[in-house]
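[User] Could I get a sequence and structure tokens?

[Assistant]
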Amino acid sequence: MKKKQSLSIQDRILAYLISIASLSLFGYFSFLHLLPSMWHMPGSPVLYVFGVIGSLFLSVSILFLLLKRTNVSKKPVFWFNCHVVTAVIGSVLVTIHSSGHLRYAPALLLLALLALTLLGVFARFYISKRNAKLFASKIEVFHTMEPHEKEKIELIISKKEKLLLSFDPDSEEGTFSLSLKHWFCHPIFSIQFYNLVRQENSCIRKKFEYNFFIRFWRSIHISLSIIFFLGLIAHIIVVTFFASYVSDGSDIYWWHISK
């Protein structure tokens, strides 16, 4: 019997999830003018709870990725699916929490969140399939390489294998990937191995036609995530401990610790 493999979240399910999220936000903002005043105030008890729960969902999304990268779980695809679902739910809740106030600094957080969402969807529906075609055609690339190019890649692979024996001898070079555990326990070896991987990818990449987003989407996604979460932490600190500054002379109607 063939062993069943975990499947990543299907495109159709993801499309349904995104459609439901989009329709929910469209419906909310379409009827927002008919709702009581508390739905127009981001710090009101109701929207405050939306913001807290939404932030937790987005934070859990990062936690899932950490679990995936630290090899704590043997189900990386499951954690990826959780990352996608919680990110979508968190984005909807945080957007509702904003109640459409886009004139202030927190609006930049929403823009970063929107960019993260759009990039994630683009990566899932386009880049992943594009990369699959590229990886599937790699065997053809090695047949068309010049002898000196093959020798260069063979030398890099040999260095990777020797380096791997130094800090993770039970792993195989062809399937090994660095995790947070390696970076913390063996930082020097991890840096050296990472540089070798970059050199190998650079040699192979020359044979493919990559556009900008295919090459750098992951770096952009991670950078936007860092910017968003730093901004989110700053937002929480300011509204909680510097309420007077945020209110700018108006009533402080949200929960806070100090003014």
